[in-house]
Design goal:
The complex is a heterodimer. Chain A is mainly β. In chain A, about 0% of the residues lie in helices and about 50% in strands. The chains are: A mainly beta, B mainly beta.
């Protein structure tokens, strides 16, 4: 089945550790995105990528890093520089960057 | 700064009621407005609106955009318990080229009671 897969669904990490969230899509979409969702808040864009080997910062990129070595994959690393990393992270993809996006099931990251 | 405001933030209705969710926006460059339904985790796409006054319809859901007044509404008729979700409005304010800017509202939490 075509879709976007995020893993893991739940992740616990100690403060000060880097952690990488996985996002894979088999929809043959060019564009991929990472959003962060906090309780009672809308989605905020962390990073996006329109093509392989290229990505752009979103509104809240500080403390995060990404790579786009393959069209299907867009992993997000939450670094120790991110001051408040506990949140729900959503990955999405779209055919082009101005068409509707399809979302993964999300990863809930808790830093203790 | 682009802004998307949804109202109400939460709403409780009974099955069979009709609801109207609102989304107003202020963006520098408008390309489209999108509605998503988020039940538990992944938002699912409902509508994309680009032109004023043209209603988009899918079953009991419909949506319309007013680009002059800068708002959109999402209507749900004959609500069912399965309509309970957070409804997200987002505006694509990308200015072309490699720029991408999709701004989300905080969402409306709809609860439909039997």
């Amino acid at each position: 089945d075509g879709g976007i897969t995020q893993s893991p669904k739940y992740l616990f990490r100690k403060e000060g550790q880097n952690v990488t969230l996985s996002c894979e899509q088999n929809l043959n979409h060019d564009a991929m995105y990472w959003y962060r969702q906090d309780p009672g808040q809308g989605l905020r864009l962390i990073y996006y990528s329109q093509i392989v080997n290229d990505f752009q910062k979103g509104d809240i990129a500080e403390g995060y890093s990404v790579s786009r070595e393959k069209k299907e994959s867009f992993p997000l690393t939450v670094t120790s520089a991110q001051k408040n990393p506990t949140a729900f992270y959503l990955c999405a993809s779209s055919m082009y960057h101005n068409t509707e996006a399809f979302f993964g099931q999300g990863t809930r990251l808790t830093v203790v | 700064e682009d802004k998307v405001v949804q109202s109400p933030l939460s709403l409780v209705v009974h099955e069979g009621d009709t609801v109207t969710l609102n989304c107003s926006y202020e963006v520098t460059n408008f390309r489209s407005l999108l509605w998503y339904k988020q039940e538990k985790k992944a938002p699912t796409f409902l509508f994309m609106l680009t032109s004023s006054g043209i209603e988009k319809k899918s079953g009991r859901l419909s949506s319309i955009l007013d680009k002059k007044e800068l708002f959109s509404i999402l209507n749900i008729t004959a609500t069912q318990t399965g309509d309970s979700a957070v409804y997200l409005c987002a505006v694509d304010g990308s200015s072309g080229g490699s720029n991408y800017k999709l701004t989300f509202g905080k969402g409306t939490l709809l609860t439909v009671n039997p």
